[in-house]
């Protein structure tokens, strides 16, 4: 997926004929063809988007996503093209009411495999001694313990003192922001295959919280967020945080890393090679199909 990210205050997105025009405060203008874009991400306030630009984007199947200063999507515009929505959602709600166990178990199992393999990759690449990944493996029935081992091991790779979403340290704030970008993309693919993003199996349902998005994202976090962020930190990236919020340049850097990862190729255990975005859609389709009783769900595990 090719993403057009607008992170500077005072930018205007308009059109000229069938082309997007990005006008900056300094008077500079950049023309972008819709053929070069799959997604537009508005990453800051103070951006003007004309109605013609919105129409041009939607006519070309281009999403427009609006993020707040913490990276949380507060709005999204896209063409709706759901698949078997009624049938799929009926099956989804029925599975939740019956206490479906196999699908959430497979999601957690896949997440833990990806976490273990991620740690194993960096320990081998950086020459770090220890078999921390083995402590993570096999903890399918104890997700909380696997998570503690995982973040402890990451702390041996980057100077991060554990995972705390409420923390305002640069590492945790960066992960929060990057996960929000992942959530936004996952919500779209779930909706497009007919699933209700607000009805999950693992995370508790809370008003306004897309619990299925959080469930489904667990399989992809180590691959499409943790890996590119760790790469950034290892290569010297130091995010700037003030009052718990990343500055515009840091947000842009993190967004680019995550979007590049989603555009990059991944190979799963089944031998299929796709971009990260394609993998998310493929496994969303598998999940919807499994809920309808058409196949058994097998989670996403990357071959490193």
TrEMBL record:
Protein's gene: cas1
Entry-linked Pfam families: Cas_Cas1 (PF01867)
UniProt keyword annotation of Oxidoreductase present: no
Assigned protein family: Belongs to the CRISPR-associated endonuclease Cas1 family.
Residues that coordinate or bind Mn(2+): 143, 203, 218
Highest rank taxon of the organism: Archaea
Function field: CRISPR (clustered regularly interspaced short palindromic repeat), is an adaptive immune system that provides protection against mobile genetic elements (viruses, transposable elements and conjugative plasmids). CRISPR clusters contain spacers, sequences complementary to antecedent mobile elements, and target invading nucleic acids. CRISPR clusters are transcribed and processed into CRISPR RNA (crRNA). Acts as a dsDNA endonuclease. Involved in the integration of spacer DNA into the CRISPR cassette.
Names of the cofactor(s): Mg(2+); Mn(2+)
Assembly and binders: Homodimer, forms a heterotetramer with a Cas2 homodimer.
Identification of the protein by name: CRISPR-associated endonuclease Cas1
